[in-house]
Design brief:
By secondary structure, the protein is of the alpha/beta class. It has one domain: Dihydrofolate Reductase, subunit A (3-Layer(aba) Sandwich). It contains 6 helices and 10 strands. The structure holds NADP nicotinamide-adenine-dinucleotide phosphate (NAP). The site of NADP nicotinamide-adenine-dinucleotide phosphate has 29 residues, from strand 1, strand 2, strand 3, helix 2 and helix 5.
Length: 173
Amino acid sequence: MIKVSAIVAVDKDFVIGNLGNNKLLWKVPLDLNHFKNITTGKVVIMGNNTYESIGKSLKNRYIIVLSRNDSLQAKITGVSFCKTYWDAIRLAVKLITNFGLSKEIIIAGGGSVYEMAYHSLDKIYLTTLGIESGGNLKFPGNISNDFKLLSEYVKVCTDSSVACKFQEYERNE
Ligand SMILES: NC(=O)c1ccc[n+]([C@@H]2O[C@H](COP(=O)([O-])OP(=O)(O)OC[C@H]3O[C@@H](n4cnc5c(N)ncnc54)[C@H](OP(=O)(O)O)[C@@H]3O)[C@@H](O)[C@H]2O)c1
């Protein structure tokens, strides 16, 4: 059975970024490392704004970018482009089946893609950072209402001194 999971980092106010601005609001290496650990060996789906903010493909992951722009596939190598969320899910399932990849599809944002995917998510990897970023784009949905907590631990990032709460949630039956 293939699962669909989201991975997201929020600040104390559930902010994930800034609308209309792709710049990351924080740099917390401990969380980047967590992202790498969770996503390695998996198919990762993200919106074109998020992809542009990363600016490159990611090693050891199969990246599918959502975009309505036809010309990107011809210009950019190393990732696949899909025009709808369900096309992206279908391609992810095909890749997992054909290449024997991990049976977990990861939704990596941003705001519009989390919103589209929210109701089909089986699981959420949530990092809560102990900062107030001042951003205006929040994670959509009510995680504590729709999901149950499976695990959590807190660790301080030694490089940034930011406290990170790492939680895993599974959708309520
Ligand atoms: N804190 C976190 O964990 C986290 C994670 C990821 C991103 N972010 C933040 O989130 C923000 C970006 O979010 P966003 O909502 O602006 O952008 P986004 O979801 O990353 O990308 C939006 C783009 O994806 C494409 N798209 C969206 N829906 C589509 C659909 N149904 N079919 C086809 N293509 C579709 C469109 O690309 P085209 O315009 O090319 O058609 C759209 O402009 C940034 O601030 C980023 O830093 C935060």
